[in-house]
């Protein structure tokens, strides 16, 4: 077994044991889905508007979350380059205990990223697609909007050797389903 697989097995086992002692409450297994809008940016290019589709399964604060995303093209002037980003993000998230209808989120995930780059020089356009896979790290804050709905604001950082510059995502998501809130406001 490779070191990467051993570390993944160890981390997964640790998360299962932490789940057994979670302070998030005994809610059972719940599914949720949602939509997100935001911006994706590579260090060298202006931010591009993005859209996301979110699916997740959560239990006691832990969630396995899958996200599909795509951005519009955004360009730079020198040289004339248009870049768009699309891909998938699958990871393990942890949401803290809700207090005052608010919680914090931490997520470690694997991103499959396609970076499409169109460069135009002297009326000749060349297209390059870079497909890369790497790890991403997310921090966020969530707000309860109703008993079973919530809004999350997330920042995700992704960096690897296949692309020049880091990729940053800032996203606003609206989620339906998941563990219902048992507070007194709703």
Report the structural category: mainly beta
| Percent helix range | under 10%
Q: Say what oligomer this is.
A: single chain
Q: Please compute the radius of gyration using only Cα atoms.
A: 19 Å
The strand count comes to 9
Overview of this protein structure:
The chain has an 8-stranded antiparallel β-barrel. The chain has one helix at residues 3-20; strands at 29-42, 48-59, 62-71, 74-76, 80-95, 102-121, 124-146, 149-158, 167-177. It is globular. Strand 2 and strand 3 form a beta hairpin. The protein is 10% helix and 64% strand. With 186 residues, the chain is mostly beta strands. It has one domain (3-177): Beta Barrel (Porin). The model has no long low-confidence stretch (mean pLDDT 82). The protein is built from 1 helix and 9 strands, in the order H-E-E-E-E-E-E-E-E-E.
Indicate the topology.
Elements: H1 3-20, E1 29-42, E2 48-59, E3 62-71, E4 74-76, E5 80-95, E6 102-121, E7 124-146, E8 149-158, E9 167-177
Antiparallel strand pairs: 1-2, 1-9, 2-3, 3-5, 4-5, 5-6, 6-7, 7-8, 8-9
């Amino acid at each position: 077994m490779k070191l990467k697989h051993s570390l993944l097995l160890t981390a997964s086992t640790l998360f299962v044991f932490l789940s057994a002692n979670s302070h998030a409450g005994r809610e059972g297994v719940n599914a949720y889905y949602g939509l997100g809008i935001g911006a994706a940016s590579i260090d060298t290019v202006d931010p591009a508007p993005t859209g996301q589709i979110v699916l997740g399964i959560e239990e006691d604060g832990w969630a396995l979350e899958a996200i599909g995303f795509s951005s519009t093209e955004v360009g730079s002037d020198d040289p004339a380059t248009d870049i768009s980003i699309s891909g998938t993000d699958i990871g393990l998230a942890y949401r803290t205990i809700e207090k005052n209808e608010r919680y914090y989120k931490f997520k470690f995930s694997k991103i499959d990223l396609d970076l499409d780059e169109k460069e135009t020089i002297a009326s000749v356009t060349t297209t390059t697609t870079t497909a890369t896979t790497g790890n991403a790290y997310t921090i966020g804050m969530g707000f309860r909007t109703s008993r079973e709905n919530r809004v999350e604001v997330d920042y995700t950082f992704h960096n690897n050797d296949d692309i020049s510059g880091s990729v940053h995502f800032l996203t606003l998501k609206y989620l339906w389903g998941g563990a219902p809130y048992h507070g007194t406001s709703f």
